């Protein structure tokens, strides 16, 4: 008898992701077909595990699939220190990952700041710790347990904020940082949360329910427990899948616009590298706003705190009556019109 369908589904998703990682990081003729015993120099794939159902399911599938492809599998859990006893929870996750056969496994305590609100601050601290762990262990990739339901929530949050299509495109299956552009992999992005939960249940994997996920003080939690069920009631069960599809379509459109904006950028800068307002004005708004956004980030504005409304304000310096004055952006960046030029720099 084969594995339970939920277990088969999570393993298949992880196997696909591992194949992609191998293809991206190993010359094709060095991939050995079939089972292989990983040695110490084999590529290492880490799972980022909170101890919740999604990432525990991911860890179990990684532990099962990685050795078959000659890969090493390890795990990292991040202790945000936001609740009493969070260190004990982290120790327990380390134990569970070790029991699954993962090595190396570590828990990292982080200090969560306040920039951008509690959820964004915890996320920034977490990714900082995961990046550091990946580098310390020389890991080829880090797997994250985001599911199709998380993707649908992300799209809805973007819609509610009035964001552009980049935000509506949600999370990418593959993403990273400068220097490691494909470090993060999300094998469960096409899988629903129920499947991950079921896979944990049938494998008797104990899971930890993050109290933040049920805390109505958090926007995402309200959306998960009230917003999405209400939408499904009104519009039918296919809403989550449809929103995830919107994410994919938006991603393709956003990528095309980004390419267009990159190509157009050189043509709107003068010989000193300053942005020329008249040339910006002549561009389609979506392309112009992308150029403004990348200029603001280049000047030091943190991408995560730079919202559509900020860029619209800068855009009005070019298109509106109020072409004078200075616009303050996050990261102490200031945008100002100087004659026919737009200057975006540290204030
Ligand atoms: N404390 C943590 N330590 C390590 N990785 C984490 C931690 N919190 C989240 N992650 C990673 O980010 C993913 C998404 O987390 P998030 O809390 O947004 O979603 P979730 O659906 O509650 O996931 P989970 O059921 O795994 O907790 C997780 O699946 C995991 O891979």
Automatic annotation (TrEMBL):
GO cellular component term of the entry, any: cytoplasm
Catalytic activity of the protein: cytidine(34) in tRNA(Ile2) + L-lysine + ATP = lysidine(34) in tRNA(Ile2) + AMP + diphosphate + H(+)
Gene3D superfamilies: 1.20.59.20, HUPs
Any one of the GO BP annotations: tRNA modification
InterPro entries: Rossmann-like_a/b/a_fold (IPR014729), TilS/TtcA_N (IPR011063), tRNA_Ile_lys_synt (IPR012094), tRNA_Ile_lys_synt_N (IPR012795), tRNA_Ile_lys_synt_subst-bd (IPR015262)
Binding site for ATP: 50-55
EC number: 6.3.4.19
Location of the protein in the cell: Cytoplasm
Residue span, tRNA(Ile)-lysidine/2-thiocytidine synthase N-terminal domain: 45-226
Keyword tRNA processing part of the UniProt annotation: yes
GO molecular function: ATP binding; tRNA(Ile)-lysidine synthase activity
Job description of the protein: Ligates lysine onto the cytidine present at position 34 of the AUA codon-specific tRNA(Ile) that contains the anticodon CAU, in an ATP-dependent manner. Cytidine is converted to lysidine, thus changing the amino acid specificity of the tRNA from methionine to isoleucine.
Family to which the UniProt record says this protein belongs: Belongs to the tRNA(Ile)-lysidine synthase family.
NCBIfam families given in the database record: lysidine_TilS_N
Protein name: tRNA(Ile)-lysidine synthase
The encoding gene: tilS
């Amino acid at each position: 008898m084969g594995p339970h369908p939920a277990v088969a589904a999570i393993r298949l998703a992880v196997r696909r992701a591992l194949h992609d990682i191998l293809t991206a990081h190993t010359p094709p003729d060095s991939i050995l077909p079939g089972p292989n015993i990983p040695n110490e120099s084999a590529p290492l794939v880490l799972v980022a595990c909170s101890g919740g159902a999604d990432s525990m399911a991911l860890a179990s599938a990684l532990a099962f699939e990685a050795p078959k492809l000659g890969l090493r599998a390890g795990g990292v859990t991040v202790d945000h220190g936001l609740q009493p006893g969070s260190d004990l929870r982290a120790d327990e996750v380390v134990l569970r990952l070790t029991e699954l056969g993962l090595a190396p496994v570590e828990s990292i305590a982080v200090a969560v700041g306040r920039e951008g609100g509690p959820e964004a601050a915890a996320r920034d601290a977490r990714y900082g710790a995961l990046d550091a762990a990946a580098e310390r262990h020389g890991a080829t990739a880090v797997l994250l347990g985001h599911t199709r339901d998380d993707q649908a929530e992300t799209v809805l949050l973007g819609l509610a904020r009035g964001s552009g299509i980049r935000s509506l495109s949600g999370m990418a299956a593959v993403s990273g940082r400068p220097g490691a552009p494909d470090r993060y992999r999300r094998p469960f992005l096409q899988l629903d949360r129920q499947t991950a939960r079921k896979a944990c249940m049938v494998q008797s994997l104990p899971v930890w329910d993050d109290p933040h996920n049920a805390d109505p003080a958090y926007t995402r939690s309200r959306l998960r427990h009230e917003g999405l069920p209400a939408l499904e009631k009104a519009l039918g069960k296919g809403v989550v899948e449809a929103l995830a599809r919107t994410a994919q379509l938006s991603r393709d459109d956003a990528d095309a616009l980004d390419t267009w904006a990159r190509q157009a950028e050189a043509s709107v800068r003068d010989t000193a590298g300053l942005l020329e307002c008249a040339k910006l004005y002549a561009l389609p708004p979506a392309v112009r706003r992308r150029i403004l956004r990348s200029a603001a980030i280049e000047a030091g504005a943190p991408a995560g705190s730079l919202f559509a409304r900020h860029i619209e304000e800068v855009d009005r310096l070019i298109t509106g009556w109020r072409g004078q004055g200075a616009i303050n952006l996050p990261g102490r960046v200031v945008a100002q019109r100087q004659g026919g030029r737009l200057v975006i720099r540290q204030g």
